[in-house]
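Why this split exists: single-chain examples teach little about how molecules sit against one another. For that reason, every record in the complexes split bundles all components of an assembly together and asks for one structure covering all of them. Below is a record exactly as it appears in the raw files.
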Amino acid sequence: MMLSRTASNLYWMARYVERMENTARILDVTYRMSLVPKDSRLADQEWYAPLYITGTLYPFTGRFNEVNARGVLHFMTIDPDSPSSIVACARAARENARAVRGRITSEMWEILNATWLEIQKITDAELTSDRLLALFEWVKERSHLFRGVTVGTMLQDEAFQFNRLGTFMERADNTARILDVKYHVLLPSLQDVGGAVDYYQWAAVLRSVSSFESYRKVYRDVITPLRVAELLILRADMPRSLHHCMREAYEILRAISRGQSNEATRLAGEMHAGLQFGRVDTIFAAGLHEYLTEFLRRTGVLSDEVARTFFGGGQSQQQVQAA
Amino acid sequence: MSFDSYYNEMYLADGAVRSHYQALADWIATTPHDRIKQMRDAANMLFHRVGITFAVYGEDAGAERLIPFDMLPHIIPATEWRLLERGLKQRVRALNMFLHDVYHGQEILRAGRIPAERVNGNKLFKQEMVGVDVPGGIYAHVAGIDLVRAGAGEYYVLEDNLRTPSGVSYMLENRKMMMRLVPELFARQSIAPVEHYPDLLLDTLRAVAPANVENAVVVVLTPGQFNSAYFEHAFLAQQMGVELVEGADLFVADDTVYMRTTTGPQRVDVIYRRIDDEFLDPQVFRPDSMLGVPGLVSAYRRGRVTLCNAVGTGVGDDKSIYPFVPDMIRFYLGEEPLLNNVPTWQLRNREDLEYTLAHLDELVVKEVHGSGGYGMLIGPTSTEREREAYRQRILDGPENFISQPTLSLSTCPIFVDQGVAPRHIDLRPFVLSGKDVVMCPGGLTRVALREGSLVVNSSQGGGTKDTWILNG
């Protein structure tokens, strides 16, 4: 038994930590792609991708004239008014944690509080090419640390389950978005499909979700789009794959529903089954981008159902994702 | 170190160390200054990391500050503490009896010991409580009584806080910090522990559950995380192992209070509320309150839930009632008060008003309903202009003010960059009333960090210290 609001705060705390990490990952992959040598006419075109996939293109263009590396990096890291910026996620994670301090361990709280205190010190001066990757690493490490401390210190009760549910719901959403980056980053020309640029871009996607080594281990072969998609969508044993995330979400929902049937659990089960029995060539036949778009729509519906079933409301007010 | 006319907690007039401070004095003398400085910085960093902060009203929204912490403890010998404890318990007993009386037979008014209009015409007197029986007849379950010590070392009660007194979390966190920083001082002498306060509080709250309730469900009700004392609310809920709820988490059905949980409604029996009366229930008090619970007061009046502290305790800690507390003790307990009141002029009385206006530069003038150190005039440190402005405010409504002599509050050394220096302090012990009246040995020592300042409130630049009750 726990307060509905507490459950909601725990869930959103975890989601924002995960989102903070994934914003860093999205910027990381974009930055790596921007380093691939290419036609100067296409300079900066990669920087549309993070805005598309986080659904913040219009908020951005409403405030800034030009889409370029500097502007997007500022907007998505230290701009407090940008909804998925790293600093905004850190703040939202901390505020949710602060509302449930009594329900989480002091170590968990201290990590989020310290992250928030540190992150406010970051200025535009840190967003230079030589320090950028270190910043992304640091953000990812804080998120790893938080999850590790959660698993290592928290009583594995209902509060723990809502926290984990938030992690996997957000991660499923974010992996789908990262995979979709490739769709938004155009190749210089049709002849480049399957060429060196294409290869580097897919490799960047893999690296951004820490899956490059796993890819090599699983396939022992060259990088192809089909296999990258298979790895990140359908492999149950890849911790960031859609299949893995939905399996976890489904199991957690079953546990916290305690035998009661509800739409949230049914929906998660349906999505999980689709991933468990899905085939990558079917996905590609219909179009990867289309598949991912539909997946994101359904995770949105699932999130609303979770809120309705457990948090005593519909769309949670903390949900700021526009996409 | 300079010596002055104030009572110095640590040193005798000839500069010798009072015996109960000897171990501390030795420690200061043998610990390198830089080492103490490092400890202080480490303490500040830890407080920040842990987020032991309070929000400051009127500054940029959501700003959080640390309450400055001073490493040198305020030490009281156990023999002296026992006298204080008896006096404090006596006072709180009488105040609870007074509150019960004013909402029932009003014997004390009929006996002519307190002018009736002072109670019945008081805006903190809650008509809704008239004739309502609360469990055990207890109103102020948690009382914070502010003590000061004047020139010759004699104690005075400066103020009774019977509504939602705060600060106990700092008492506990300061102790934790001191045990971490100077464990050797705890090993070397016998310092009374305070860590069991949350258990005492939970026992107190359970003891006043509605009749026929077993295993009472207790919750802490907070206005939310932007309230200045939110840290404390969350801290106490966590330490007691009970839910921290906001108004929106509760609802009332059939005069029963429930909280909304992931598995459906759960009945609530005792609410340790840290929300003012006015915001508790929009159906009864302020209709625009978003913090409260509609129907709560109705459930409370019917005895279906217990509110701690009770509604309407403000009439007991109002500064216009304060002068009568010694008389209450005599009236209800038939005892002589063990603790003194500060002499108080009530400006509703013509003579007191005239005296006060003629001596504004010597006196402290306070608003009758005020708290937190806001809206007061400290004569000796005020400017001519401030006094003139205040004189106008007094003349606009003299009944809203009292005045008191400016007490030469005792000083206790604090750690400063140059060494140690004396600063004025006060002490807020907490008195819990449930089945019994119980106390933790100690309290929250507040210190005015600015040299010469007499204002110890955290909202006005005050800091805190650990308080040690030392067995000799």
